[in-house]
């Protein structure tokens, strides 16, 4: 299982390359990529392109891709933290 971000060059580029290398080294192993998409407003100007190209590579070389939205994850974390604070 690979967990990485799709927004920056390190997460999307290195993550995609790592999936390719793992597939080449272990062709029969199951490979799951857990990827976090960048914010919609864009942290980086090229984040959408990085994410799109990385997803294409991940889809080709991994068995499954779990795609999470950064904004949704942040919202859930805030809600969970608020509920925990209210319960305490």
pLDDT under 50 segments (min length 5)? none
Would you list the SSEs in sequence order as H and E? EHEHEH
What structural class is derived from the secondary structure elements? alpha/beta
Question: How many β-strand stretches?
Answer: 3
Rg on CA atoms, Å: 15 Å
The average pLDDT value, as a whole number, equals 87
Order of the strands making up the biggest sheet: 1-2-3
- How many separate helices? 3
Shape: flat
**Residue share in helix:** 55-70%
Largest sheet: 3 strands, parallel
> How much beta, percentage-wise?
15-25%
Distance between the termini: 35 Å
How would you characterize this protein structure?
57% of the residues lie in helices and 18% in strands. The chain is of the alpha/beta class. The chain has a three-stranded parallel sheet with strand order 1-2-3. Helix 2 links the parallel strand 2 (32-37) and strand 3 (64-69). Helix 1 runs parallel beside helix 2. The longest helix is centred in the last third of the chain and has 18 residues, at 70-87. The termini are far apart. The mean pLDDT is 87.
Task: List the topology elements.
Elements: E1 2-5, H1 9-25, E2 32-37, H2 47-61, E3 64-69, H3 70-87
Parallel strand pairs: 1-2, 2-3
Helix pairs in contact: 1-2
């Amino acid at each position: 299982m690979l967990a990485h971000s799709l927004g920056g060059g390190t997460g999307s580029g290195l993550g995609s390359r790592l999936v390719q290398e793992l597939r080449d080294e272990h062709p029969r192993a199951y490979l799951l990529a857990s990827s976090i998409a960048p914010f919609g407003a864009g942290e980086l100007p090229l984040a959408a392109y990085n994410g799109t190209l990385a997803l294409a590579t991940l889809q080709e070389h991994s068995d499954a891709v779990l795609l999470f939205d950064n904004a949704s994850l942040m919202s859930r974390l805030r809600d969970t933290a608020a509920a925990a604070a209210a319960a305490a």
